[in-house]
Structures are given as C-alpha cells and as structure tokens.
Amino acid sequence: xxxxxxxxxxxxxxxxxxxxxxxxxxxxxxxxxxxxxxxxxxxxxxxxxxxxxxxxxxxxxxxxxxxxxxxxxxxxxxxxxxxxxxxxxxxxxxxxxxxxxxxxxxxxxxxxxxxxxxxxxxxxxxxxxxxxxxxxxxxxxxxxxxxxxxxxxxxxxxxxxxxxxxxxxxxxxxxxxxxxxxxxxxxxxxxxxxxxxxxxxxxxxxxxxxxxxxxxxxxxxxxxxxxxxxxxxxxxxxxxxxxxxxxxxxxxxxxxxxxxxxxxxxxxxxxxxxxxxxxxxxxxxxxxxxxxxxxxxxxxxxxxxxxxxxxxxxxxxxxxxxxxxxxxxxxxxxxxxxxxxxxxxxxxxxxxxxxxxxxxxxxxxxxxxxxxxxxxxxxxxxxxxxxxxxxxxxxxxxxxxxxxxxxxxxxxxxxxxxxxxxxxxxxxxxxxxxxxxxxxxxxxxxxxxxxxxxxxxxxxxxxxxxxxxxxxxxxxxxxxxxxxxxxxxxxxxxxxxxxxxxxxxxxxxxxxxxxxxxxxxxxxxxxxxxxxxxxxxxxxxxxxxxxxxxxxxxxxxxxxxxxxxxxxxxxxxxxxxxxxxxxxxxxxxxxxxxxxxxxxxxxxxxxxxxxxxxxxxxxxxxxxxxxxxxxxxxxxxxxxxxxxxxxxxxxxxxxxxxxxxxxxxxxxxxxxxxxxxxxxxxxxxxxxxxxxxxxxxxxxxxxxxxxxxxxxxxxxxxxxxxxxxxxxxxxxxxxxxxxxxxxxxxxxxxxxxxxxxxxxxxxxxxxxxxxxxxxxxxxxxxxxxxxxxxxxxxxxxxxxxxxxxxxxxxxxxxxxxxxxxxxxxxxxxxxxxxxxxxxxxxxxxxxxxxxxxxxxxxxxxxxxxxxxxxxxxxxxx
Length: 877
Fold this sequence. Notes:
Layout (H helix, E strand, L loop, with lengths): L1 H16 L19 H10 E11 L5 E12 L6 E4 L4 E7 L2 E2 L8 E4 L7 E12 L6 E6 L6 E6 L19 E10 L3 E4 L5 E4 L3 E5 L13 E4 L2 E5 L6 E5 L9 H19 L8 E6 L6 E2 L4 E5 H4 L7 H19 L5 E2 L5 H19 L5 H17 L24 H17 L1 H15 L3 E2 L1 H12 L4 H8 L6 E9 L2 E10 L11 E10 L4 E11 L3 E3 L11 E3 L9 E2 L3 H10 L6 H16 L5 H11 L6 H20 L5 H21 L4 H14 L3 H12 L11 H13 L5 H11 L3 H13 L3 H12 L5 H10 L6 H13 L1 H7 L2 H11 L6 H13 L5 H23 L3
Parallel strand pairs: 1-10, 16-17, 17-19, 20-21, 22-28
Antiparallel strand pairs: 1-2, 2-7, 3-6, 4-5, 4-7, 8-9, 10-13, 11-14, 12-13, 15-16, 18-19, 22-23, 23-26, 24-25, 24-27
Helix pairs in contact: 3-5, 3-6, 5-6, 6-8, 7-8, 8-9, 9-10, 13-15, 15-16, 15-17, 16-17, 18-19, 19-20, 19-21, 20-21, 21-23, 22-23, 22-24, 23-26, 26-28, 27-28
C-alpha cells in the first residue's frame, strides 16, 4: 500500500508540475508531522476567508469516510500550498474543478500553484481514515459493558487534521458547515445546534448550520448513543451527554446549576453575551486532559467527574471550577483567539483566573481562592523554582512544541500574575481593559501585546516594564519583612525582595497586603493590615512605624501577590507554636504552607513538621485546610518510603500514625459527611501496616464497618488497590473476584492499576516491555505507567531501572509527545540517593538530543532526587 501510494504521489506531482509557469519550483514543505511558526505565518499571509463543508459517514466501525470542500481566498500563486490531513486514504481530489492524483505524503496535500488562482479557490477531497485511539482526532471507544461505540473529537493543538483536511493553525479561522450520517440511535453534537435530522432507515442524516468563525482546534464533532439531559430554564439552552452505561453516575442538576450561574456571571463581567447560543457538555472516556473548550460543545474526562457515590464538597468545587474554566474560554480563546501557540498560556492563565473568580462569586464555593492557593498556586511555585523554569511567554517554533510549556507556570502562575495585576490596577480598571479587548478583537485573532495594550489604555499607564518583568522573566522571587521594635512599638519596617533562586535577577513591582498579629490568651489578634506596592530590593513601610510590635508578620496577607514568603524567625516560631490560635483560615493555610516550604528547602526537619501536624491537624475544622495538610502528608509518606532503609523504622511508625489519626477522625466526624469521607479516604491511602490492611479487608468483606461510611464501587477499588499494593494476604483473589463482578470501563482500568501495583517482579517486567514496545492500547499503557512503581517498591524498580534509562532515548525518538508526557514522569527511575542523582545527571549529559519535554522531565526528576536526599539528611535522629 505504501508503494502504491508513493506512485500516485509521484504521478500527481509530475502532472501538476507539467503546467507550471515557474522555471524553478520553490522548496517544498518538509515531510514532517508538524507545522513551523514560519510556515504557518506564510500560509496565513496568503490564505483568507476560509470555509469548510464537511460530510461524514459514521457507522461505528474502525474507519470513517468523509468528503470535504475547502473554500478560500488566495492572495498569490507563487508557491505550492499545503493542506493538512493526517494518515488518510484519499479516494478523490478535485482542485478548482479539475480532478487530480493527490500529491499526498500521509501528512499533508501539496497543491502546485498552477492549479490555484488569485482569488477564490475550491478544493474537494474524498477520503477515509481509521479512528484515533489515543485521545486525539476523532477518537473511538467501545463500551465494554454493552458494546456501544462512542466517538468524540479533540483537536488541540493541531489534531483537526486527524479528522478532516484543514489549514490546521489557530490564525486561519473559518466557518464550518457540517452534515453527518450516523446510526439511528446516535446523537451528533457540534458547535451549532442541528437544524434538521432526516430519517434514512438504519441511519439518520444530521444537518448543522454554518458555524461562527472558529480556529480549527475550537471546532468539534461528537457522536454516539449518548444519553442526553436538557435544561431550558436558564439564560441559554443547556444539554449534558454521557455514555448510557454510566448515566446513573451523573448528577445533571449540579452541572446545570453551575453552568447557568457561570453563563450569567460571564455575560455580565465581559459585557458580551455568550457567543455560541447553546451550551453542550459531554462526558467522554479515555480523555487525555481534564476538559476541552470546544466552542459550544465542551468535553470532560469521565474519570475526573463521575462518581459512584454522592459528590463531596471538594468534588463539587472541582466540577464547578472546571466548568467555569472552560466557560471562560468561550470568550477568551474561542471568541478571541491567539495567533500562534506562544499565546496559549494567556488563554489558559486567563481561564484559570476567571474560572476561580467565577467559582468564588457565582457558586457556594466562596473560598475558591483559598483552594487555588493551597493547590494550583503551590504547583506553580514549585515549578517556577525548578532548574527547568521558563518565562510565562515563550517562543513555540512548531506545533510539536505547542504543549512543551503547558504546565503550572502556564496555568497557575499565569493566573496568579493576572490576579496580582488586577490588584495593582484596581478591579474596575482591569475589568474595563478585558471588556475593551474582547469587544475590539471578537471573532479575530489577537496577541499578548493586544491584551496588555487594552489593559494599559484602561489604566492610563505604561505596562511595558511590568510585561518584561512578569511575562518574559522566569522564576519566583522571595519576600520577607525586616523590622525592629523598641518599648513594644515598631521603630523601623521594610520589605526585602530577593531574586529567584534559579539565577534570575529580576526584581518586580507588586502590590501586597502586610498583616501584623499579636498573641492573645486564646487566639492571635490581627492588629493591622496595610496595602503596600513594593519594587526593587528594599521598600520602606513608614505607615507601620509606631504600631504595636507584632508576634507574627505575614507580608502577603490574603494572597494578593505571586511571591514566596520567608517568615522572619520570630514569626516562624509563632507560626509553629500558635497555629491553632490563628482564626483566619486563609492566613492559617498560608502559615501551614510556610512550614511545609521549610521542609522542602531543608530548614525544618520532616519529623519535626510531622510532630506539628500530629498535634495541630486533629484540631483543624476547616475542610480545605484539612485537605491541604493531608496532601503534605501524602508527600511525606512518599519521601519516607523513598528514603528506605535509612529512615525505615521512623517512616513505618509515622505512616502508621497517619493511618491511625485518619481513622480516628473519620470515626469522630460522622455528623459531617464531607469531612468524614476526606479523613476515611486518607486512611485508605495511608494504610500500609498489617493492622490497617487487615481492617480494610474486613471492611471489604463486610466483617467490620465504620458508621457513616458506605463502600461504593469506587471505594471498594481503592481498598483493593491498597491491599494489592502491599500484597496483603488474599489480595490477589479479592482483585480477581472484584474484576469479575465489575466489568465496566472504570472497573477494567481499576483492576489493571491494582494488578500492576502488586510487588511482583514478573508483572513489573511484563508491563515494562509492554510499555516500551507499545504493545497495548495507549489508555492501558498510561494506567500501567502511573501505577507500576510506588515508592516503597524500590528493590523491584531497581531491577528494571537500567533498562528504562538505557532505552529512554529510543523510546523518546520513536513515540510522540502524547506518549512521552505520560512515560517520562512515571518511568524514569528514582531512588532518593546521591548515586541515583549522579546516574540521572549522566543520562542528561549523554542524551543531548532528547525531546524538549523528556529532557525537561529528566532534569526535574534529578532535581527532585536532590531534594529527597536533602530532606532525608535534614531529619533529626
């Protein structure tokens, strides 16, 4: 087949060239599966007024067929034009009415300029293609429960070409007219609502009207026998879709409530009504990410938003937050779109910022900014402190690099920077700038300079230096207060800003609040808080002089700024000893974080931190803070397991104490379901000693119970996973029985995770080979990667460590970015020793040609190994 295709390509090229008026044909685009920025800009300079007429024939089989008409204006015919189409079989090609053999290399069609005209052009392509199975293009999934087939599309950054021929770049916006023939019991969902559906016997023909102008990655088509819920009680018609076999796990009332609240909030905030008339949301399996902002047809990962039990407050908050994030994109990303992928960070940062704001203001989760601080923002601080940190705005040379920098800097640091810019400019000025930007560039493409220009104009100030310092310089700075007191009053006070530890020397302008607290008999008292705009290395704060000498100073009160806080020694001691007396939950959260940061940098021994936790956490009543500190305990458990055998005895006793504390607090919180489930889930994940594991087994078998806790199917799998992780007696048989009883997609995946996590050398070796050789479908491989080597199985992971390092370059060279984003973080070996650090450093030095994403992950893992060694060495005996 390849040889035959090559013959057609050669004939097509010769036929086209024979009529060319160009003496020397221009250099053709290289046969590579990506588009460079230069190629994209050159193409968009020539092509305009694009429209697509797409006709799909879907029957549920492994391939689909389609016909596409591309209409566009061309400004010159001096060089070939390429149309992106990935791995299709082309059966007919007609260019401006003339049938031709396709000059097609499996990646794009090349059209000789002699076949094109200055002005209007039409290209007609008939083709067929295999469905994707890796989550991109038009993905196909067969439900193991009932055999029903479900399709959904995912195009970001440049995978629309895996479904139809397209100019696959964001600045060639187009309209789309869609017709789909699909089985009679299917739903078909796209950016617009269908205008008619014709009955054709065993199939139906769906007609969709012309869409608004969209970038290719914002368009979508989903199809299958999805269950549908509708709600027309809000401002816009809303629909929700899910597979039939999981429909009973969906709580549509929550989805519709948050969706309607968000649409009303954003209509008001942006001053532009929702642009896509209807709002569809689709829960889909095997999804690569959390969700995707397809215009009017947003997709969500089933695994993150389907639960067998009633959702907890944390799960509802996450659902609301993701709904708001994707909804913000409908304006900022879909209505106004970046020109190229270097602007992707602004889309994601803005959606993260606005999504959190909307969650805080339009839902019951008015503490959403505290959740953001404790979760995503800490990820941003950590990422920005790594050797691989990068500016928020970075060049993106090709579509293959579009996701190289999609990380916590892109999302959470960017959102934090926008948040502090809003404080710097003022809420209403910031809002006015955003509204002006959306009004001016709606249905167009825009740049960072366009956005900053709109804000600068609204604020009537120059933001060039701010942009340079915050968006083009990497690293997180540190802020600390320095003050002196005499006779119980402050006689000097200044803020000291130090540059990032990563070597970046930039000192930034930022507005923060400085809070001063003093000890009381039963609580800490806030005596003063003042806003301060600081810049440079030192900023005097004369407004605090003469005030009462504080026991605790926090120089980023209520988290206005993006900066690491270094507490002065007096404040640090107060924080460590008076945590439970701080009534303000946001400040208490930030003080907990300061203690954990001190563990991370080696200045507070891990065992001392755990002593503080065991004393203070049982008294904590705030749901969000409980989750925040539990996350640090999970990190502590990982480190303690990684440090074996050096701190094995202490580690085992500490983790046993974590499990016992969690179980006790789960049993004491029967009146609060959310807290109880949070504590019980922690108990399951901390259980590793024989007593705890035996208790979990008894719960599973119905031989014991915890009042208020019902073992739903998700929780049963979590227990089975934990029992198999530690190879507890009878765990393998329990796994086999549960897998037989639950043959749903989630059950199959949970069983696989429990199988690969078992401390069995043969299982590990088999799955290492499967992963390296790509011997299973990618969704299975991804589960295996993420569960193969928990930290306590150090001896087992050493058995294949050399093989994984030695084959890293070959795997990286042969697999794509989607594969490596999962493979590199999970499969690069770690051991929490200096020898492991040296081995990783040698791998870095010896493999300079690794892809950007794999090299970055390798360097970060080496740095985290150094951190593990540091934390281990700082522990007191």
